[in-house]
Amino acid sequence: MKSTTKLVSLTLSLCLASLLGCAEPETLPPSPSPATESQEADLLKTGLAERIRIEGQEVDFQSLEQRQAHYNVPGVSVALMKNGQLAWTMQSGVKDFTTKLVIDEGTVFQAGSISKPAFAALLMKYRQDNPLDLNADVNTLLTSWRLPEHKWTGQEVVSLRRLLSHTAGTTVHGFPGYAAGEPVPTLQQVLEGKAPANTDAVVVDIQPGTQMRYSGGGTTLAQLTLQDVANESLPTMSQRLLFKPLGMTRSGFEQPISSDLSNNMATPYDGDGAPIKGGAHTYATLAAAGMWSTPSDMLKMVSGVRSAYLGQKTDWISQATAQEILTNNTPTNEAPNVGIGFFITMDENSEILGFGHGGADAGFMSQLYLELDTGNGYAIMTNGNNGTQLIRELEIRLKEALDVGYSEAEVKTLVPISQKELDKYIGTYVVTNPVNVEIVLREAKNGFVLNALPYIENERYFHEGEGRFFAKNGSSVHFESDDENGPVKTLVMDGNIRGVRKEFETSVLAQTSKE
User: Fold this and answer.
1) Domain CATH number, residue 252
2) How many Cα atoms sit within 13 Å of 194 on the Cβ side?
3) Given a cut of 90, is residue 476 above it in pLDDT?
4) How confident is residue 507, by pLDDT bands cut at 50, 70 and 90?
5) What does the alpha-carbon distance between residue 489 and residue 512 come to, in Å, rounded to a whole number?
6) Cβ–Cβ contacts within 10 Å for residue 418, how many?
7) How open is the CA angle 211-357-51, to the nearest 5 degrees?
8) Which residue range is the domain that position 325 belongs to?
9) 230 — phi, psi (to 5°)?
10) Confidence band, pLDDT 50/70/90 cuts, at residue 434
11) How many domains in the chain?
12) Lowest-pLDDT range, 36-50, 160-174, 285-299?
């Protein structure tokens, strides 16, 4: 989830709530006509382009179908909310390339990490109705497992509040899930990193409470804690505490998918447009990545939080609970800011603009966002690994055409580069981590064409000054040398992929082995 600047204070939250927080629902403007809704939905089917634009150059706008084909994304489902009410939905493409069955409003996708705020919301509903200390050491709540001691044991606690805001210092960013036919571990095996788990043990290696670091491992620990306290499974709790109260009839935490949802589910696809082998992965870590849902259902969840936050009468959670969900728990005002499960977007005056979360499972990419003041927002779900890029383009279009959200195209200026300067960079670079691949640069006007087959083919990069280059998809490349006037030896792509120039590869490897 992208987020902007600062944090809203609890005082401001309470002041806002006191101004808006009467028991009756707010007065809504007249609902748009069906014709207007259709016109708005149709706006998303045209006018899409990569998120980087070049000043002075004409933008190559394309249709949604063209962009889906470009990214090998079979299907996309969108729901738009206005004034806290579902306004319209729009679908494009198919659930499965083989059957050609089209996506419809009820088609379910894996929601990926949007499972985290959904889990956090149901935990807060449980805590509203039952004794549960969010600030207690989870080892005082757990009965089926125990978090190993760490450097700060006895000084700083690993609490549910910190686990749900990614400030507990726990490890393991995310989970790949388990393909069909693979054994699925228990939560305890996941936390211990023991077979058949395919991720490392979840440990505490940062002082709890000192910084925000995203941790699906922490959410998994929170899931086990709640299940121990409630003596109830997450799938059962989720129906009772979240899905049924909010009318989320096309959602569930069952893994593999339940029979009542499987009759209309999307098939996941990889970045090349091939189906994920064995179909949708099974996620043992339900709270971190295991929810199935639709865009409409996910908007019902965030609308319920918003309504309660503003003091509107709901039969789900209280205003105090909602305000706690949307109160920042990160130790600084620097983005990203996280409440209980949700990422929170703020303006420069520390006022909350909106909240949401992104999601990524094997073959499924999603995004959820709702503006606090207007009640306008959207949910987008796709069944392709390149769905994130398509979602970014749709978010830009939503902001441009309907003024919903915060995503805007970035405009860059081309900086001329001499032939002599460009020649310093052209060549072949060898990458050994995270994959073994050769990156080949071929000269082009004001930049180069990059190939890293089979991962990247003929991607155009443009010079933006000082030896830095960008692609229209947001990727970036710069170069390093041993000294200012020496030959270029290293390519750095997207900040963390490093390639050694082929003619220097042997000497660099030899030097590394000596060190």
Assistant:
1) 3.40.710.10
2) 6
3) yes
4) low
5) 14
6) 8
7) 105
8) 10-18+35-47+65-402
9) -85, -15
10) confident
11) 2
12) 36-50
